[in-house]
Design a protein that fits this description.
By secondary structure, the protein is an alpha+beta fold. The chain has three helices and nine strands; from the N terminus they run ββαββαβββββα. The strands form three sheets. The protein has a five-stranded antiparallel beta sheet with strand order 7-4-6-5-9, with no helix packed on it.
Length: 167
């Protein structure tokens, strides 16, 4: 199946082409609500934003973002995931690499935070988080839907698409 581009452009877009298109770049943190803090869960600070570096040899055909959660949740999340991509950690937070736009139509459960472009704001200027887990192969992604469901479970949050059952 192919879609024709703008009238008269002569450009044909196939599904293969559409997969490679990206939404307009967003400024890190631009999609945050005003009452949300930074990617670390605290108020925005004056520290320079930094992007999580991917290990050598990783390919990111879908771009990449990160989901942060408090470090106390990390050991509860990891064994419940069917596949684990790159995971970074420091004393206070763990970050899972997910495909870009994994926040589309999805509200990640608090205290987890979504970091567009895997850009961490509010980080002290010390060493970046350490790579805790590197997957086999060259794809750094943790599947976002299982990660979302596991984070909902460990935080006691009902997934947004699940209605509350009343007796």
């Amino acid at each position: 199946m192919a879609l024709s581009g703008a009238s008269g452009s002569g450009r044909v877009l196939s599904l293969n082409t559409l997969v490679r298109l990206r939404r307009a770049p967003r400024t890190p943190g631009a999609s945050r609500r005003r009452d949300e803090g930074d990617a670390l869960g605290g108020p925005a600070s004056a520290h320079a934003p930094r992007r999580l570096p991917l290990p050598e040899g990783m390919t990111v055909p879908l771009g990449f973002d990160a989901v942060a959660a408090p470090a106390r949740l990390g050991p509860l999340v990891m064994p419940r995931l069917p596949r684990v991509g790159c995971v970074y950690a420091d004393e206070t937070h763990w970050w899972w690499i997910v495909p870009s736009d994994s926040d589309y139509a999805l509200r990640w459960p608090s205290p987890a935070h979504y970091a567009t472009g895997a850009v961490l704001t509010g980080m002290p200027d010390s060493a970046p988080p350490a790579l805790l887990h590197r997957p086999d192969g060259t794809i750094p992604y943790t599947p976002p839907i299982p990660l979302y469901l596991v984070l909902c479970r460990v935080t006691g949050t009902t997934p947004a698409w699940s209605p509350t059952v009343r007796a």
